[in-house]
Amino acid sequence: MASNSDHTSHSSNTVSSTDESASSESGGRPELPEECRSQPGTDHYAATVELPVSIDEAFAYHERPGCLNRLTPPWESVQVEHSDQSLAPGSRVVLKTKIAGIPVRWKARHVWYDPPHGFADVQDSGPFARWAHQHLFESLDSNRSQLTDAIEYKLPAGVAGKVFGSGKARRTIEAMFAYRHRVTQDDLQMMADYPMSPKTIAVSGSSGLVGDALCTTLTLLGHKVMTITRGDHGDEGSIAAWGDPAEFEKFESVDVVVHLAGKSIASKRWTPELKEQIRESRVEKTQALCEGLAKLQTKPPVLICASATGIYGNRGEEVLTETSPDGDDFLADVARPWEDACQPAREAGIRVVNTRFGIVLSPKGGALQQMLLPAKMMGGKLGSGRQWWSWIALDDVVGAIVHCIQKEETNGPVNFVSPEPIQNREFAKVLGEVLNRPALFPAPAFALRLALGEMADSLLLASSRAVPEQLQQTGYKFRFTDLKECLRTLLGKDLKPATQATA
């Protein structure tokens, strides 16, 4: 997996939609259709990224279900409303997005398909007067390839659109493809770093922030994903682990179980009833799952079970590793039996990893999503601001889970945090800088306690200076170790490919 310094793009010569190398009429390859050929009065953009896998593997990644969702920038308000899950000519995609707050449907159609050399799509209706996008793949050697995204576009409203919108459109396109290329390069570097035969991986909590990203990425890497549901019966793609006992036999064909399900701890103020629901959803469900896995004739070799750095409690300046003692607050009292509930699986010979998540960063959900509005309103530190926050980018959560699946030496508790925890006041300052807003207005501790009760002390004011000792000792390479770079990438601020070609 590439580290922060490994992200490089390589410029190509200007790629126009009439480039014969894109269609290569010789050799029986399909000719580029008229819809993709250059028209007068349009703008062109192209950028190229080198990929650490063969051309066939690079193309296969883009062809698998979920690729569009995976490569959609998280700061964009975009939803896939419909997809034929195909790149073949005639297949269609409908996206829901917003332009200046106005809902827009973007309808696109694939018009050219030449595996593994490329594919192309055009806009049928949407925010542009014209949009034609070629995805061009080239082999560099048996283990390296490159991808060029070549766009021909035209803004609506004629001269006025070009005068007033061209700068914003170009910056948006640059940021989008800088993000897409980084994610593609990182994911395929992960494929190269962790070569695995296709596995069947069962995931609970698949609709959550981590679960959704994990299921999509595993599918793009060529694995079969089955969801673990709470219903009475599953289907061919799911397992009702806490329903019909006969359903449990499906785990016999599973290679890895990833158990992420649990009631949200931050959805509303804690009451005695809610605290019991939080505990039950983690401890009792995990206990039942692990007891069932232990009884199987053919057991999954690996169980990855969620946990949290909340197990350490409020520890001030103390640096916390996986061997640090537990805390004594509510979250610690949940996490401790949560991890202990995996004991039946351990005793049955299943390798168990307890992923102690820190603050998972993504604008799509979780803490960062909730912090964005206050930060844009120049909100600052919480309480004293001296409390340590252990954070991790969502993509590193996914990457570290893949690492733990493959690395047999990972076992027991593993801190899922970046190597550089940061104090809350510095976190607020960095977020403000990325958003171009000063972090001026602190939130006093008494006000947070008044609004949130016990939750304020456990989630916002507690200090947890956890470090990822196990991940680092077993060789995991983080995508993000610098908070500012992480936030810039997640929020699309000042992102540009290292090099690009334009016309």
In terms of structural class, how would the helical and strand content be classed?
alpha/beta
Instruction: Kindly provide the radius of gyration, computed on alpha-carbon positions and rounded to a whole number of angstroms.
Output: 24 Å
- What is the terminal separation in angstroms? 33 Å
CATH names the topology of the largest domain as: Rossmann fold
Percent in strands:
25-35%
Q: How are the strands of the biggest sheet laid out side by side?
A: 2-3-4-5-6-7-1-23
Structural shape? globular
CATH homologous superfamily annotation of the largest domain = NAD(P)-binding Rossmann-like Domain
Please give a handful of descriptors for the protein shown.
34% helix, disordered N terminus, seven-stranded parallel β-sheet, eight-stranded antiparallel β-sheet, alpha/beta, 503 residues, Rossmann fold, 25% strand, Alpha-D-Glucose-1,6-Bisphosphate, Chain A, domain 4, 2 domains
Short description:
The chain is built from 15 helices and 23 strands.
Question: Can you give a write-up of this model?
Answer:
- The chain is α/β, with parallel strands linked by helices and 503 residues long.
- A hairpin with a 4-residue loop joins strand 5 and strand 6.
- The protein is built from 15 helices and 23 strands.
- Helix 6 runs parallel beside helix 7, helix 11 (424-434) crosses helix 15 (483-491) and helix 12 packs across helix 13 (454-461).
- It is globular, with a radius of gyration of 24 Å.
- Residues 1-26 have low confidence and may be disordered.
- It folds into 2 domains: 4-193, Alpha-D-Glucose-1,6-Bisphosphate, Chain A, domain 4 (2-Layer Sandwich), CATH 3.30.530; 200-490, 3-Layer(aba) Sandwich (Rossmann fold).
- Helix content is 34%, strand content 25%.
- Belongs to the NAD(P)-dependent epimerase/dehydratase family. SDR39U1 subfamily. Belongs to the ribosome association toxin RatA family.
- Residues 1-40 are annotated as: Disordered.
- Residues 52-176 form the Coenzyme Q-binding protein COQ10 START domain.
